[in-house]
Amino acid sequence: MDSDLFSRRRAERFAQLLDEANGGRRHHVRSRADDQLAALVAVGQRLGAAPPAVEVDPEFRTGLRAMLLATAEREGIGTPAVAPEPAAAETGRGRLLPAVTARRARARGAILVGVAAGAIALSGISAASENAVPGDALYGMKRSTERAQLALTSSDISRGQLFLDFARTRLAEAAALRGDRDGYSAVLDDMDADTRQGVRLLTSAAVQRSDPAALDTVNSFLAGQRRAVGGLLDDGTRADRDRTRRSLALLDAVRKRSDALRAAIACGLPAPAGSDALGPAPTACPGDR
Which intervals hold domain DUF5667 (predicted)? Predict the structure, then answer.
């Protein structure tokens, strides 16, 4: 998606088209972007006509309210305007200040209301997309939500755990796509990519800290994931089973890497110089050579 999509003119035109589609006053203008925005307008109409049947989490509602109140207090929204000093009121600039301040306050208030409405709407759509699989209308929203979670996570350990959670999610999607050769293989490719990303972050953190705690997270993931992936071998096509075995081989490689790093940390080896898709590649302890 090109960055121009979010330009001010396109955003304003999109708002006009959406308003017109919902019965608002028609604007007798036409933009070159109208054809590109038509699909987004159609999505907006469908979302308005059939909103997701979900409820906003009470904790989210409480946190959002607190955030909005704090922002309103910080920005001075809702507080009475301060009368200008007599000296300032005599000048042209002084006479304009109250009006400008009021307009800014109203604009900030409108932005806050928009942020609140958008956050609540997106939380509902995000919840409705949790069970979406590739090919569903809301699957793109599901993956966008995952990217947003990663963007809001600061530590490598937390990001690694998120990637492993996403690998579990891809596994559930794969179970729903058995029989669809291309879709099944593609979602397992994504699952393996998430597994590698999560394992690399967690093994790197374990080596940097000389602490195997992050490896415990990896092993806990492997225990359930390998059993569940193995279950995909039942009643699958030959092509599906062959693809599933590749994912099982990756999980076995992850287990070997985790065990080798745990042993290296235990015997006090320095941080490995080499690494690969699974993170640091340790050498054997002196007694094991």
Answer: 132-204
